[in-house]
Amino acid sequence: MQSSAQQPSLFTPEDLPEVSTPWEIVDSEDQLYAEVVFNLPMLKSYHYLVPSGLRDNIRPGSRVRVPFGTGQKLTQGYCVSLTRTRPAHRNFKSIESLLDVAPLVDAAMLRLTRWISEEYLCSWGQVLDSVIPAGVKSKAGTRELLHFELAEGYETRLTTLKLSATQQRIVDVLRSTTEPMAGDELTSLAECGLSPLQTLRNKGIVVSTKIRTWSKSVSSAGENDTSAILLNRNQHSAVTRVIESLASGKSETFLLYGVTGSGKTEVYIRVIEEVVRYGRQAIVLVPEISLTPQTIRRFRKRFASVAVLHSHLSDAERHSYWQQIARGQVQVIVGARSAIFAPAPNLGLVVIDEEHETSFKQDSTPRYHAREVARQRVRDAGIPLILGSATPTLETWLRGIRKEEIVLSLPYRVAQRPLPPVMIVDTRNDQSLQKGASLGRAMLVAMRESLAKKGQIILFLNVRGYSPALFCRACGQSVRCPDCDVTLTYHKQRQIALCHSCEYSIDPPTSCPNCGKPGLLFLGQGTERLEHEVKARFPGVSVLRMDSDTMQQKGSHDRALESFRQGEVRILLGTQMIAKGLDFPNVTLVGVIDADTSLHQPDFRASERTFQLIAQVAGRTGRGELGGKVLVQTACPDQPAILYAARHDYAAFARQELEHRHTLGYPPFVRILRIILRGEIEADVEKAAERIRLGMESKGLERGGMLAKILGPAPCPVARLKKYFRYQLQISHPSGEVLGQLWRDVEPVAPELVPVEISVDLDPISFR
Ligand code: ADP
Ligand code: ZN
């Protein structure tokens, strides 16, 4: 135990610098070359000479510092391969230094990141840089301290030297140990300062090495509880089937299609128990908002070592987990999207819960989808993947239909609990709703009934703020953000009109900024307005609003859910934050305030999202003895998404929606590459987009026997964002590889289009 490690130490390498010797240049016959990639948007890699002093330690996956670009500035890069064959190149620069003692990524991770860069059309270096957490790169929570030991042959040298008493004490202390000793420990044991140590080193009696140690230990232990649930028949056959696959060493993907509350998590846990029994590790991906204490507890109870990777971890905690995982000390890794990159050395299984969640797709470079990365990772490792959902994406469902992947069904809720009845409320004939209220007659009746029977209520409205538009009756305009093509949302509590795209805000105007006439209307409802209405309608009943405005503080989310669980709060209302994963037996009513918000999005997945939303919120009720029901307010009661959701009929919805997508040539029958261009001068952006299109056309759109279709250039639905004008092209073709070729064909013109910036998004899920 190194007690002094927490205090500032004198023994950092900087405090006691060594004179550096330049690397020797060796015979060119025997050279080693490293291929290096950078965190820059260029697809090329570069070769560097490996100096002899680094040869023993450099590995593919090592971070290096090399001279690069104009001015040959020292730049960080990643060594991705080593070769003795001289690459076709003339002047080789040398690697300046190695940044890590051991490589941060192994061979499998190198293959995976390379695949991502090819699939998602960005550079290998960008991917590597993004999958390694910042805390791991900075070695957060550790520091490098000098350790000392006696030099080889020191005894001979001692015979010709006369040591001071202090120096002698140092030598004696070092003689008593075989390991290098930390500087602090040594000086305290030998009761000496820095300078006698320095002298001994100069005389070649003592040598120093840099050793990295943890500043403080970061770890967590499991709770362990093996109270077993008896699996029902469907759960049992699902578990058995995946375990068979585990044993086969094949890489099979399973869609665990189970209604909400059917016991999917229990299936994951049973399979993971089997994986752990063989000394292997499992990764479980869940949406960030499902990383509640409730979920975490379920895993901690059943496994001895669980790492939970959520966004609130400090860099030091993340680094510590990474190291523990890499050493194989963690059995189960539970985390959001990026946990798919956990460096488990002997991975046995990947699970993705709520496979349909959009948060598994990253919306900045590299724009990967964790589910697709998982499919690739398990293929490479020869292990199974479980995708769980009550409302699978049509992409995954189609693979099931085509028998490319295996569907395992859990059609019933556990303990014979029925799915709750879903009532559709047509808002078009409700007078009270016409006047700007959010709660229609039927909703009010159901709420009163539920409260009278001591039940709890969840109300869902996916718009935050008080009202999403400030509308001028005189000129027919809404108040807009000066930098974005969106209306400002009125936030009553904060007394601002806020842009939800760029956070621009102003004092709420009292008159129209366009025409100057007074009297702006608050158009539409947000959660804040709903909260006012509920409180006015149900005085004395405790109401809690959950959205990103009220849940800013760390831990507030957990506290809010806890007070709801305890029954201190009777009505919980909020945005999608409350639509997912919550399991409260006393909830007897779920109200969807406005199903039309998601139905009217300019996105071919609007129907699918609406279906998912209703099915998911319906999953929040009827989980206990009291039963429950769902009310859905909509002005489009005949929409298939709403009708099928009310009947809990996913399969029928999927059949009809797939037919529709097939007719229109949408995914999952084709894949889409979305190219987004942005710049400050609209004409330039449009011209750049036009050039990309022409470039593709001139290279030929007929590929693989099919014609690639190009939509656009056209302004994006949000045509202006943070002062930038935005244009898009949407290219579709059944093959992702063809889409990749098309982009690579035109990509070389990108530098000529600067300052217009281009980003490419394969399989986009946002079309803003
Ligand atoms: P899902 O993930 O499909 O929504 P969960 O796995 O969360 O469902 O299960 C819902 C609840 O049912 C949990 O409290 C779980 O402990 C319980 N449960 C799971 N399987 C069984 C079973 N076979 N018998 C009784 N209860 C079960
Ligand atoms: Zn804005």
UniProtKB/TrEMBL annotation:
The keyword Nucleus does not apply. One of its GO terms (molecular function) is 3'-5' DNA helicase activity. Transmembrane segments: none annotated. Residues 507-661 form the Helicase C-terminal domain. InterPro entries: DEAD/DEAH_box_helicase_dom, Helicase_ATP-bd, Helicase_C-like, P-loop_NTPase, PriA, PriA_3primeBD, PriA_3primeBD_sf, PriA_C. Gene3D superfamilies: P-loop containing nucleotide triphosphate hydrolases (3.40.50.300), PriA, 3(prime) DNA-binding domain (3.40.1440.60). Residues 245-410 form the Helicase ATP-binding domain. It comes from the Bacteria. Pfam families: DEAD, Helicase_C, PriA_3primeBD, PriA_C, Zn_ribbon_PriA. GO terms for cellular component: primosome complex. Zn(2+) 1 binds at residues 472, 475, 512, 515. Its EC number is 5.6.2.4. One of its GO terms (biological process) is DNA recombination. Zn(2+) 2 binds at residues 481, 484, 499, 502. It is an enzyme of class 5 (isomerase). It catalyses: ATP + H2O = ADP + phosphate + H(+); Couples ATP hydrolysis with the unwinding of duplex DNA by translocating in the 3'-5' direction. Keywords: ATP-binding, DNA replication, DNA-binding, Helicase, Hydrolase, Isomerase, Metal-binding, Nucleotide-binding, Primosome, Zinc. The keyword Lipid biosynthesis does not apply. Its cofactor is Zn(2+). Binds 2 zinc ions per subunit. Component of the replication restart primosome. Belongs to the helicase family. PriA subfamily. This is Replication restart protein PriA. The gene is priA.
